Amino acid sequence: MKGGEIMIRRVAIATGVFAVSAMAAATMTFAQTATPTNTTTNTTVTPTTSVMTPSAAPATGRAN
Amino acid sequence: MKKFLFLLIIIIGIGFGLSVGLNATKAFQQNDKQVLSTTSDQSSSQQIPSRPGVPKSIKIPKIGVNTIVESVGMDSAGRMDIPKKADNTAWFDLGYRPGQIGNAVIDGHYDKVDGSPAAFWNIGKLEKGDRIVVTDDSGKELTFAVTKIVKYPYDNFPIKEVFGESSNAMLNLITCHGQWNKDTKNYSERMVVYSQLVE
Question: What is the value of pTM for the model shown?
Answer without folding.
Answer: 0.65
